[in-house]
Amino acid sequence: MKAIxxxxxxxxxxxxxxxTAFSKVPKGxxxxxxxxxxxxxxxxxxxxxxxxxxxxxxxxxMMSKKVFSKEEFVTAASKDFVLVHLDFPKGDPELxxxxxxxxxxxxIEGFPTVILLDKEGKEFTRFFASQYxxxxxxxxxxxxxxEKKDLD
Length: 152
Description:
alpha+beta
């Protein structure tokens, strides 16, 4: 009986670790949109909102592994943007509920969606992150989006 109890404890522990591993916020990212806009206003930056399903969306998981979690990306993108990670994990209903008003406000229709806001919080473009699955391509798209915004 002890072996079964021990096995169950290990199984639940592994499941808990797996769930929290997916719902971790990447280093260098904010999770509060209003706070990010305030930082952007103060620092003269734009805001990048990333809407993700970290534990169920294959393109989201791929983008996290290949782009968003990489120090090279965070360092480069943070020069012009305050980065905001908005997760909708199946394994964390409370976090999903907390972020749902943002999905409603910005009318999110799919994941992973990225929305770029100016320092006042006004949207200037949106796209599916998985269109740019490499750091250099993603950064180039961000730069291009900023240049186009400044032309308006």
